[in-house]
Amino acid sequence: MLKMSDSIEEAIALFSSEGNEYLEVRNDDGEVIGLLTLSALNEAIQQKGIDHSIERLIDRKDLIELQPLPKTIEENDYSKLIQSHVFEEIIHSLYDGVYITNQDGVTVAVNRAYERITGIKAQEVVGYHMEDLEKAGFISKSVSIEVLKEKRPITRMQTIKNERKIIVSGTPIFAEDQQVLYVINSVRDITELLRLKHEIEELQQVKSLRQSAKDMNSDMYHEILHSSIISEETFEIYELAERIAKTDVKVLIQGETGVGKTLIAKFIHEKSNRVKQPFFELNCGALPAALIEAELFGYVAGAFTGASAKGKKGLMELAHEGTLFLDEIGDLPLELQVKLLKVVEENKFIPVGSTEVKHVDVRVIAASHKNLKEMVAQGTFREDLYYRLSVVPLTISSLRHRRKEIIPLIDYYLEKCNEKYGYDKQFSLEALDTLSEYRWPGNIRELINVVERLVVTTKDPVIDVQHIPEECRTSYKDHLDTEEILPLKTAISKLERELIMRALKKYKTTRKAAEVLQVSQSTIVQKMKKWERDE
Ligand SMILES: Nc1ncnc2c1ncn2[C@@H]1O[C@H](COP(=O)(O)OP(=O)(O)OP(=O)(O)O)[C@@H](O)[C@H]1O
User: Has keyword Transcription (predicted)?
Assistant: First the structure.
């Protein structure tokens, strides 16, 4: 915008920045009083030099008077234009599709690009009303009808014949009385664009997953395998895992939750020839059956209500040439076990809602905290799948059976947490003693959790027994593991010990504990002496 009081330099700068042939000139009240052309400015400079403001240089009569907007052409002129040979040539030469309807919503012309994009021929639509074409299923929702109703440009995404995605932009052409005469729709095919976008997203997903698996593990393996953290038994498992990693043999990892099954599965992938390809994991216990199927095998567009309109590749396909870790495989419903067996045996599967067979090369590593052999005996896990998956079974013991690892693991994670939070906390010997006696039902995951919690919540530099959560202060010796099968006699004495310890903790004295447990006080004292002797 140029004001009459502005300098010539400002006018020149505006001309060069906007690149226009003319500028609007306003008075001090901001009203547009005319247009200044570049040639008028040039002429004035030639005559009067450049040392002036616009006001002194340009006469009002040098400005072009503002004209009213050009008159809208008559309806007849348009229909003549649309039917003309030149117009036809013009619209056929366009790369995007063109679809024109009249004020009644009747198709009057389409170009060849439209026929190419949609596969719909001109003679199938020209002369027909959009509502009838909608009913006949040629298009999903007519943009022309919307434009006619709303009298404004509208853009919509549409699906043609359930496969191609197009963007339709409808623009109204008005008559002088503001009635819509025609709607010109430009139609652009974006199927290819969406496919490319989808591929890029998938690529990024794979890349970031691969990266995060790498970030998390590479240092850790080095640290735990080259330290005294793990016991000989665990070391042997890692050694065996490394030996079989290079082959494609199927591995079944069994062990309680939090013992390190996922870590071993990632380790096998890291040491295998598939390391440059993706590693994916799916917890079969965390999702309902229908979702597991969709996650694992993918689905095609419209396979089920709520499915993404573009369909989705399953992990089985995304993990092509890589590794797929199926955690909690015991929770996989029987009908999906059949589908999985097919992939494991023949490397092929069919996505949900599709008829196309996909071929993949995926190494499946399965894991379970349930006893799969027992499940086979009960008929809840397919025997054939069990044997296919467990060519090499790896069983990881629970932490309470790897007691030698507890203190080194506490030290390892204490150092990590101190580093993470910038502290220098230590455990007292008594605290370490208490924690090493604890059962750790959640295994290493629980241990990490407790250490982190203690580091951030304890004010003192030394973490002592009283800081340890109550539930972690019971000794595994005072606890009867209900999942364990023990000789009856041992189980009874364990239960007896657990009950007596619980009563002593609650009532503090042997007299009161004996009263509640309905035994003599001396029975309790004798039993406690015996435990001391046995330890
Ligand atoms: N030997 C080890 N040394 C140090 N940390 C370990 C070791 N094994 C496992 N961990 C850590 O313990 C945590 C639990 O391990 P992981 O997730 O592998 O257990 P999981 O058996 O797969 O558990 P879930 O069955 O619940 O999935 C992880 O943070 C892992 O990094």
Answer: yes
